[in-house]
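G., the chain you wanted modeled:
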Amino acid sequence: MANRERALNRTERLFALILLMQNRPSMTSRELAAHFGVSRRTIFRDLRALSESGVPLTYADGGGYEILEGYQIPPLMLTAREAATLLIGTEFMKLQSDASLRKDADQVGMKIRSVLPREVGDYIDRLGERTVLDPYWLQTMTVDESEEGRWYELSQAIAKQQSVIMQYYVQSRGELTRRTVDPLGLVYYTDHWNLIAWDHLRKDIRNFRLDYIREMRTLFERFTTPEGFDLEEHLRERGASQENHRITLRFTSSVYRWARRSIPAEIEEERTTDEGVQVTFYFENLGYVTKWLMRFSTDAVVLEPDALRERVKAEAQAMAGQYEGAVV
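Predicted structure as tokens:
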């Protein structure tokens, strides 16, 4: 016990000290020091810190320290920075197409807001009025009510290791297939959620977009995670999609510093040449990369694959065509 407690940092120890004194009153400084595996001098310093922070400490008539009856630890002790981080997290969840995630995010936001000190709450309100993750997302987003609860149902299946049967739309072939899968993880990939799962049909680990799942049902059948499977390692090795493309681009040096921040994938290779900076990464959606590249105009060049080069060329020609013969 002492060894475990000795590993606590001071913040954790102060919190544990409050809980201990509330549950076991009248403990002496010697007993407290022995419990946490620290010196009495450290305990005296911790008690002084608690008292200065507003915890009502007292010394019992029979000896030992106590916390006055009626004191409760605030449900949440958040700094303004921590609360702001949670705000951004809940706002991000409100951008999801799954209505249940947006509803849960609203509830979480209200619960957090209700227990914050007034000054932190006011700070969060001011920040919220001036923070927008995507000003056009909610206006253009189409919501399929059949998707509601899908993310949560799959997260439960992952936690409980239960198989799932689903109707899945295969975009490349334009057909609906029936799949039984063992869900292994959920990954948010640029603009949509993905399910990483063992596919009983293909006898391999595959990626499934949640917005391509037409119907699904969790089975009572339980599965065993493949031996040695690690989600992060799997994503590093194979990417979040079986349709990933190796993409190599070259940026002018002046633009790359800005472009690098928005590359929609983990960078595999990066090197500086006489012509600029060459970068390689893997990504599944060439249409998305095409639109993303257009913002860099002639400061970005596609080196591979040819399919992406042709898409960018066609997009540029289509854009130029809109202005042919235009009346100024």
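The first strand starts at residue 57 and ends at 59.

Shout if anything looks off.
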